[in-house]
Amino acid sequence: MDSFDRLTRRPRALVALGAAVTLVLAGCGSDSGGGDSAGGGLPATVKVVAISETTGFAGPAGKASENGQKVAIEEINSSGFLGSSKLEIDFKDTGSQPAQGVALLNQAIQSGASVVLGSILSTVVAAEAPLAERAKVPMIYLSSSGEFAQGSQYVWAATPPADQYFHWQAEYLRDKNAKNVAVIYNSDVSSTQKWADSVWPQASQAAGLNIVAKEASPTSATDASGVVSKVVAKNPDAVVVLASGTANNAIVLALRRANFTGIIAGSIGMAGAVNPLKEQGYGVVWPTNFSNLVETQEAKNFVDRYQKMFNALPNNYAAAAYDEVWFLARALKEANSTNREAINKALQKVGAAGFSGALGKLQYKDNVSQAPGLLIEWRDDKEVPIKGYGN
Fold first, then answer.
1. What is the spatial distance between Cα 320 and Cα 139, in angstroms, rounded to a whole number?
2. What does residue 284 show for φ and ψ, rounded to 5 degrees?
3. Closest among 168, 372, 385, 169 to 294, alpha carbons compared
4. Which of 14, 155, 290, 307 is most buried (most C-beta within 10 Å)?
5. Which residue spans traverse the membrane (predicted)?
6. pLDDT by residue (tens digit) across 224-278?
7. In this structure, what CATH number is given to the domain that contains residue 129?
């Protein structure tokens, strides 16, 4: 999610991953509130336009999110959760381009959109969120950075902030007798820059760890041997990799080739990225919000449905998107309306009450999702929970 966020020159353009999904609800058209009048009932068909990053830099995460949304919609429809109303979805691709995301969002709003499920790539979210707020259209996005939602009235973050889980990682390293830690991070990604500058130093200090090296590596680097050689020269007990997407692969491989024998710890961006490394990725640990090995009833239900639909195991991006759609469905049922204000009030009520989903017990505070989270280890081609939710 947030590990794909890129820095831009816009002050608010911190990036994050989620799948931009705009709901265009049949029967809408009120000038004042969008959709029908409050309490007017749901239409027979709730048409969902998904403005998703399925190509470009965020493509892998966007596609996983899209699949998670499809699982939720199939379950909602087949269970009759919305009574006789059915959800329909039409996915559209931004190509990971903010301008395209804004154009598609504008089209949806002008056609009577009542709610938006916001984009997965935060450069797109940064452009969309002000537009949704001005239009007073509820928008739920999937970034693991809550900054676009905090303090807003209509914008919601459906993915729990990733930085709230790093303390587990620091405590894990301490318990493994690591004392000196090095950090390698993507300096051209807003979330990883933040984690390296403030979040991880705080977590390491609280756990009694010493940061002996801190080196930046761009996301475009396919060979991280130079940065790794500087870090390894400091003889750290562990290396924390705060990187985005395939940048994780380059750094982990460089550490293995440098014969680094200490612990390799990562961030939520390791999800999916480390898979192709097979044995060379085994032993890497990172904090996240989901593992497909979690044994709760809700998680198992989601994993089973996902496997049946796609013949594959879901990752955290798919799980967050699944819960995102269920958050919306609960609000639609509560509102019994496609009116924007009615939906937003229902989101407030459902979010405050909370519900159990694939990510665990979810509750919204300051419009930002909160969930238990967990620490996982990549082992035998599986994301194995070792601490936290589901363990």
1. 15
2. -70, 135
3. 385
4. 290
5. none
6. 999 999 999 999 999 999 988 778 889 999 999 999 999 999 998 888 778 888 8
7. 3.40.50.2300
